[in-house]
Structure formats: structure tokens, C-alpha cells
Design a protein that fits this description.
With 307 residues, this protein is mostly helical. It has helices spanning 2-10, 15-49, 56-61, 64-80, 83-87, 109-149, 153-163, 169-187, 196-209, 211-214, 216-222, 225-234, 236-248, 257-265; strands at residues 89-93, 101-105, 254-255, 281-283, 286-288, 304-305.
Length: 307
């Protein structure tokens, strides 16, 4: 319903295009949200396996080919678990905005029970898998550190928890953002469309539901030193971000006019000049000239900006 209201803010839609949006956009948004939850749990599970000594069976689970198969399997299962939701979607007149329409899902008693079971599975299984996997990682590290440093396991566990607490942020935020929508769906399984306050509350809960997907970078990459370094060095966006950060914080070169001309016009210098043609000091692939640093005996007395 939230997606349909956003489309209505852009343009007034007739019944037929809104019916397509109701059954396609809203359904896909629900499917992709659940897929993200399951994939987060799968990634946490694979990450926990890497902290243990892998035998032949565990090594086969963590291979790239099997990981792709697991991702495809999760996507197919989640789509199959949403078929009843796609079938039961209907389009009704919007009581809040006259002349427009709103999506509503009408379940039979059996489908309602099935939908509640699926809702619990989509929420608690990925959450439990994520929490258990993170605890296994901390337990494995604590066990090795306790043996290596001859300390107690409990003290090492507390220390590692303080170091890796950011691993718990993703499942906790996902749980907190999903609970309002879950409570509303269980408390008000059938909603009268004339109750405007309940429709607005449901819209707000659906908006909160997408917060974890919108801050994935902050939850998984920015909080991890290893992932963030890989992002800066191997990702196209990370390299571009670092380059723009360097350009915006580059020191403007200052040098006297006479010193610059002597350096650029010198035919036989006593040693190779570190300046390029624009007055920058060559340092690998970078060209910089900090203010106040001498250059072959010359210090910037009459500063001139060289562009």
C-alpha cells in the first residue's frame, strides 16, 4: 500500500494501471524485503563457518558454486511463499484520497493462518541464524585467545564482544524495524478501510520496514574495518570516493615566480627537478607542493597561485 500511495503522489492513476502497480510493485517490494533478510542470515552463517577449521563437508558448503545454489534456492522458496499474497491482492477505493485507489489483501481463514506462519518464519529464522552465527564467531575467537593468552574464556568473550558488537547491529535493527508491521498484521488481520488512523499507522509501519535495506552500507561495510578497506581499494565507487576526497583536500601550491621559472627553464640542472610543468612536486602518481617547504634552496616569499 505504501508504494501505491507514493505513485499516486506523482500522478493520478486510473484503475487499470493502479491494479498492475498494486499486484506487481507492492508484491515485489515484499518479496525483496524478505529475500534481503534471508540473505543476511546466509552471509552470517557462511562467515561463522570461516572461523572454524573446515572439514571436507563444511568446505563444500562454503564453495562459490554451492553459495550460488543456496542463493537461488532462497530466492525461489521466498517467491513460492508469497504466491498466496500475490493472488489475494485486490484494489479498492481509497477512503483518504477520493477518486484514487488502495491495495488490500483478503485472505481466507486457512490462508490467514498460513500467512502468519510464513511471516514468523521470514522474521525469526534469519534473525536467529544471524545472532547464532555471530555468537559462534565470538566464541571461536574467544576460545583461541583464551588458550593463547592463558586467560579465562569468559573474560575473552566479553573483550571480543566489545570489539565485534557491530555484528549484532544488523539483526537487531532488522528485528526492530519488522516488529511494528508484524504486530499490526497479527492484531488487525482484517482492517476496515474507513479507519483512516489505522491505514496511516500501517503505512508508517511499512515505511519503517525498508530502513534496514536502505542503510546496508552503514550496517555491514562502514562499521567493519576490513570491509571498508576492501570497499576503498577494490570497489569502483570506493576508488572514486577516495579520489574525490583527495582532490577536495589537496593543498594549493605556492611558489615564487622567479623560482618557478628557473626550475622550469633550467637546461642542465644539478639534479633532477621534482617539479612538473604546473609547479607540483612529483610523488609517485600524485603531484603536491605543501606551503612553506623549500625547493632547491628557494622558499616561497612572494606566493603566486599556480593553476
Amino acid at each position: 500500500m505504501l508504494e501505491c500511495r507514493l505513485f499516486q503522489l506523482i500522478d493520478s492513476l486510473s484503475y487499470i494501471p493502479f491494479f498492475i502497480i498494486c499486484n506487481l510493485i507492492s508484491g515485489l517490494a515484499s518479496i525483496f524485503t524478505r529475500i534481503c533478510l534471508w540473505l543476511n542470515g546466509l552471509i552470517a552463517f557462511h562467515r561463522s563457518l570461516q572461523s572454524f577449521e573446515l572439514n571436507h563437508y563444511l568446505h563444500r558448503i562454503c564453495t562459490k558454486s554451492n553459495a550460488i545454489k543456496q542463493i537461488v534456492f532462497i530466492i525461489v522458496i521466498v517467491i513460492l511463499m508469497h504466491i498466496h499474497e500475490l493472488i489475494c491482492r485486490v484494489t479498492l477505493s481509497d477512503p483518504v484520497a477520493p477518486g484514487k485507489f488502495v491495495c488490500q489483501i483478503k485472505y481466507s481463514s486457512d490462508l490467514l493462518i498460513l500467512n502468519q506462519i510464513f511471516t514468523f518464519l521470514h522474521l525469526f529464522i534469519p534473525f536467529s541464524l544471524h545472532i547464532i552465527s555471530t555468537c559462534l564467531i565470538i566464541a571461536s575467537i574467544s576460545h583461541r585467545r583464551a588458550i593463547l593468552h592463558q586467560t579465562t574464556y569468559y573474560n575473552q568473550w566479553i573483550k571480543q564482544f566489545q570489539t565485534h558488537y557491530h555484528l549484532f547491529l544488523a539483526p537487531l535493527i532488522a528485528m526492530l524495524c519488522t516488529l511494528p508491521q508484524l504486530i499490526l498484521s497479527l492484531k488487525f488481520s482484517c482492517v476496515d478501510i474507513s479507519l483512516k488512523w489505522l491505514l496511516r499507522l500501517n503505512t508508517s509501519a511499512n515505511l519503517i520496514l525498508y530502513i534496514p535495506q536502505s542503510i546496508t552500507f552503514l550496517l555491514f561495510i562502514y562499521r567493519s574495518e576490513v570491509y571498508f578497506n576492501i570497499f576503498k581499494t577494490q570497489s569502483i565507487f570506493g576508488k572514486h570516493f577516495c579520489y574525490r576526497h583527495y582532490v577536495n583536500n589537496r593543498i594549493v601550491p605556492h611558489i615564487t615566480r622567479d623560482a618557478l621559472h628557473r626550475q622550469l627553464e633550467s637546461k642542465t640542472p644539478t639534479r633532477k627537478s621534482p617539479l612538473d610543468r604546473n609547479g607540483y612536486i612529483r610523488f609517485g602518481r600524485f603531484h603536491i607542493f605543501p606551503t612553506g617547504i623549500s625547493l632547491n634552496g628557494f622558499r616561497p616569499a612572494d606566493p603566486v597561485n599556480v593553476t
